[in-house]
Design a protein that fits this description.
With 185 residues, the chain is an alpha+beta fold. 48% of the residues lie in helices and 15% in strands. It has a single domain, classed as 2-Layer Sandwich (Muramoyl-pentapeptide Carboxypeptidase, domain 2), CATH 3.30.1380.20. It has a 4-stranded antiparallel β-sheet with strand order 1-2-4-3, covered by helices on one side. The structure holds myristic acid (MYR).
Length: 185
């Protein structure tokens, strides 16, 4: 029998990471499936996924700021780049590109060509109208709200609906000043 070559630490780490990513993807799929069973209406599932994402986002921002060492962004353009290149990489393992800026720099698109949430996923015809990855829009909305940015985050393109990429539009609605409104005398 051929001797089994010991695997290096790196190889073991990579395979553990892959298994974790697959477990995460499958677990998310199981959650969506359960919501579809419980709520029946696809619209309600979209809302619930967005709300779950929001609840995650308002907590995840602390971990993001602590781990990333990102300091205050000068404008929304920098914030969008940080989400796409640092945030997505940290929590999803992929990066997004930022495009489609409007003239006043208040709205842009984040484009994901690779989306680990949808590995192994095929939607049946009964799920038309489902925004399967709606948790992501909620996460971004929640995280940005905690750093004083009220946003609206919506899906423009979705590969599970036959589009050629995943595209999220992020619109800055309001930037709340974090300055304390009263002076201590
Ligand atoms: C600031 O100006 O205070 C920095 C703002 C950085 C916001 C970054 C939000 C990260 C959101 C991560 C989303 C991950 C989605 C999978």
């Amino acid at each position: 029998m051929a001797p089994v070559a010991p695997r290096s630490g790196d190889a073991i780490f990579a395979s553990v990471e892959r298994v974790n990513a697959e477990l995460f993807t499958l677990t998310y799929g199981a959650i969506v499936r359960q919501l579809l069973t419980d709520l029946e209406e696809v619209e309600e599932v979209n809302k619930q996924l967005d709300q779950m994402g929001y609840n995650i986002g308002i907590r995840l921002i602390d971990e993001f700021l602590a781990k990333s060492n990102v300091s205050r962004c000068v404008d929304f353009k920098e914030t969008a780049e940080v989400i796409a290149k640092v945030g997505f990489k940290m929590f999803l393992g992929v990066t997004a590109s930022v495009t489609n800026w409007d003239a006043d720099g208040m709205s842009c698109s984040l484009i994901l060509e690779d989306n680990p949430l949808v590995d192994f996923v095929e939607l049946p015809d009964t799920c038309q109208g489902l925004y399967y990855c709606n948790i992501l829009s909620g996460v971004i909305r929640g995280a940005l709200e905690m750093v004083s940015m009220k946003t609206e985050v919506t899906w423009v393109r979705d590969m599970l609906r036959g589009d050629d990429a995943f595209e999220l539009q992020v619109k800055l609605l309001k930037q709340v000043s974090e300055e304390y409104p009263y002076k201590d005398d």
